[in-house]
Task: structure prediction
Amino acid sequence: MCELFGLSSNLPVTANFSLEAFARHGGDTGPHRDGWGIAYFEDTDARLMKEAEPAADSEWVDFIERHHLRSRIVLSHIRKATRGRISFANTQPFIRELGGHMHVFAHNGDLDGIEKIEALSYHHYRPVGETDSEHAFCALLERLSELWLNTAGVPLLSHRLQLVQQFASEISSLGPANFLYADGDALFAHGNRRTQSPSGEIKPPGLFWLSRQCRVEPVIDVPGLHLDGHDQHVVLVASVPLSQEGWVPLDEGEVLCLRNGEVFSSPA
Result:
């Protein structure tokens, strides 16, 4: 199965350590050689880089690490193809505009028969590729569009969370439905089920999360993050723990809502 990585922080940070560990799963320590991508939010916009090549061998990953790209919200995906050919169009994350914000989505799992479910159809948003994951993203945007287009500014976080939770519950009936979704203001993470190693069983947890809070002094001593000072609050989300720290598994069906490095809500 594919692997996901997300980051929410109160201050712009780089994710070099976590991205390096994550990328090694993409064709080195893991079997995910069919593509990778990463999105860095810049306020309401997002910088997206992706390619249909193994992340572990990518010169673009080296470029990202050399240039220390910063963001308060980062979302990444490495792919093991199960639906759709190996191509740029089928490589995640996927990105669309809605309500003057760029929205980014990445999914891990298989949503069998999603194209046959009327409630998960789309009209204004259409897939560029052939994956069930992009179909799901288009269906999610259809759900969110009325809220975003009929609200001045950013809709209430509680309203967005409610729609994301409803959507997550519906697609979970079709198969493993772990996903990350971000709108430039918040990052939503849904944990479901995934193939566990080494048993091969498909079961929870589908995602893990880790909170880092620290006071940065002149000597930077925070593994994996480039910090500039002040109080730093960071939450990381990944398919599997990327370090020896105390990563917490999400319960099946749990949705984390993250904003500025804090957990806004964590209902199951």
Summary: Residues 3-265 form a domain with the Glutamine Phosphoribosylpyrophosphate, subunit 1, domain 1 fold (CATH 3.60.20.10). Residues 178 and 240 are 12 Å apart (CA to CA). Helices lie at 16-24, 59-67, 132-149, 157-171.
